Amino acid sequence: MAGRVIVVTSGKGGVGKTTTVANIGTGLALRHKKVVMIDADIGLRNLDVVMGLENRIVYDLVDVAEKTCRSVSKALIKDKRLSNLFLLPAAQTRNKDALTPEQMIAIVDELKDDFDYILIDCPAGIEGGFQNAVAAASEAIVITTPEISAVRDADRIIGLLQEKEIYDPVLVLNRLRPEMVRKGDMMDVDDINDILAIKLLGIVPDDEEIIISTNKGEPAVLNAHSKAGEAFRNVVRRMEGEEVPFMSVDGEPGLFGRFLKILQGK
Amino acid sequence: MKLFREEFPSKKQAVERLRLVLVHDRAQVSTGLLELLREEIITAISKYVDIDEEELEIELNATESKAELVANIPVVRVRRPLE
Ligand SMILES: Nc1ncnc2c1ncn2[C@@H]1O[C@H](COP(=O)(O)OP(=O)(O)OP(=O)(O)O)[C@@H](O)[C@H]1O
Ligand SMILES: [Mg+2]
């Protein structure tokens, strides 16, 4: 059985690609899927620190491409917490030309049969690094925040994915701030859905726990109390084909709502 | 001040500006697409009529509310229908 190869991309930088890969990778592994996360952001490696695995790296993606290490599996780093979760780190001291789309395809081909999911963390931008990250993927998750520039770039990315014959990308709206949406000062999920017109995979609130979890190198999805973690757990369930209602965009229900929930025994 | 905010929430401005900017972005991206379309239209139409390929024009006109594809195809000669 060949696993699903999914690229996580955005166009605009800093909107949450790496955070998303770390969380859904961990979330899928929690559900006993065999998962490998590939950090394709060569020169700006991040996924290792977000996962807390930075001290375990021996070989990297470019070493694998150049066959400095004997096989792909030699370069895979096993997660600290979950034995069915792996990271293939990016090279930190090389630049983006150190890899070609063909090499990326060959590496993913080698991994495909051994994993249920191969998640590729794409660098920002639309140049070589993007081309490499997308080359081997057959599905895409597009990340945006509710800001004009990020949504605009997401639109561009959706067009470029089409050229790569990825026709049904899905959307994760990250860093939503319910209180700003309520005041009318932030685009909400319906506005963005209308504009981008692709299927929604998840809505992730802006959450301090993301920063705390990054400090610790422990994805928020492992934290039962994090709202972003909860959102990522829902994303994972949807990826696995479950129908999960979307979080209320209005955020926490007010006092009355909470009271009602208690009455209803929820 | 309060009234002003409620009537012009900044997100409405964001949505409007985004829509406009995307109309332009998408129209630009589609120039490559238009070239392909042009080629295929020529092939398809030439089976039935002779057209002036040089003068053939295809345009994508996009405004905020709608987009239309306008083609102007000068016909040189209509072929006799095949029996
Ligand atoms: N839901 C969230 N709530 C709060 N902070 C977040 C959230 N998502 C991401 N961040 C923070 O935003 C920053 C950028 O996130 P991340 O590194 O995942 O983005 P990226 O798209 O991978 O960036 P790059 O384009 O540089 O690779 C990080 O500091 C991260 O902790
Ligand atoms: Mg990143």
Sketch the topology of chain A as an H/E string, one letter per element: EHEHHHEEHEHEHEHHEHHH
What is the oligomeric state here? heterodimer
Q: What is the spatial order of strands in the main beta sheet of chain B?
A: 1-4
> How far apart, in Å, are the first and last alpha carbons of chain A?
40 Å
Kindly provide the radius of gyration of chain A, computed on alpha-carbon positions and rounded to a whole number of angstroms.
18 Å
Task: Tell me the CATH superfamily of chain A.
Answer: P-loop containing nucleotide triphosphate hydrolases
Output mean pLDDT of chain B: 81
Describe the structure.
The complex is a heterodimer of chains A (266) and B (83). By secondary structure, chain A is α/β, with parallel strands linked by helices. Chain A has a single domain (4-263), classed as 3-Layer(aba) Sandwich (Rossmann fold), CATH 3.40.50.300. Chain A contains 12 helices and 8 strands. Chain A has helices at 17-30, 47-51, 61-65, 72-75, 101-112, 128-135, 148-163, 178-183, 189-196, 208-216, 227-239, 255-263, and strands at 4-9, 35-39, 77-78, 85-88, 117-121, 139-144, 170-176, 199-205. An 8-stranded mixed sheet of chain A has the order 3-4-2-5-1-6-7-8, sandwiched between helices. In chain A, helix 7 links the parallel strand 6 (139-144) and strand 7. In chain A, helix 1 packs across helix 11. The N and C termini of chain A lie far apart (40 Å). Mean pLDDT of chain A is 92; it is low at 251-255. Chain B contains 2 helices and 4 strands. Chain B is an alpha+beta fold and 83 residues long. Chain B has a two-stranded antiparallel ribbon with strand order 1-4. Helix content of chain B is 52%, strand content 23%. Chain B has one domain (2-78). Chain B has helices at residues 2-7, 10-46, and strands at residues 49-51, 57-62, 67-72, 75-78. In chain B, strand 2 (57-62) and strand 3 (67-72) form a beta hairpin. The chains are: A alpha/beta (266), B alpha+beta (83). Adenosine-5'-triphosphate binds at residues 10, 13-19, 41, 46, 124, 174-175, 204, 206-207, 210-211, 214, 228 of chain A.
